[in-house]
Amino acid sequence: MVRVDPETRRIYLACARGLVAGRISLDAADDAGLDIELPVFSVGQVGQLANIHPQTLRQYDRLGLIVPKRTEGGARRYSLRDLDRLGQAQHLSQDESINLAGVTRILALAEENRQLRRQLRRSHQSQESSMFAAAADGRVVEVRRSSRARLWRQDIADREADPTNSKSLIVWSMSSSGR
């Protein structure tokens, strides 16, 4: 289990609050660079965030509805993905009156759909040219190019290719035999 520093924990907690309140989506957290699978939250924290009794969370774990990761000591640790699943499960069971077997199936399909959307977004991004940089520790990392920079480069290329922007002087000679 990875140790999480206090600043990172605060960032994940703010994101978790946004997820529970419906202000942000799991895809937005993923796109922002957060590891949505990082097990950060204890049973008590998730209970407070989602306004659900910790015993209900343990029951969901036993049923396989929301299965958190475990520490070496066996304690449950929930990720942002788990919190998102919990919110969806609560909505489906309480607001839509769907039984837990149905909720489990719907959540599995929703996760598959989310993964496919993510792969599609990343494949579109990889079709664009990529830039690479060296990280502080020497690793090579891919750097996303911004669309603004891409448009700027395209604008420069278009201006250079436009003959009306040319600084060249064309001299025409008219011979007297052509008149």
TrEMBL record:
The keyword DNA-binding applies. Pfam families: MerR_1. The keyword DNA-binding applies. It comes from the Bacteria. Gene3D superfamilies: 1.10.1660.10. Keywords: DNA-binding. GO terms for molecular function: DNA binding; DNA-binding transcription factor activity. Residues 40-109 form the HTH merR-type domain. InterPro entries: DNA-bd_dom_put_sf, MerR-type_HTH_dom, MerR_fam. SUPFAM superfamilies: Putative DNA-binding domain. This is Heat-shock protein HspR. It comes from Bifidobacterium asteroides. The lineage of its organism: Bacteria, Bacillati, Actinomycetota, Actinomycetes, Bifidobacteriales.
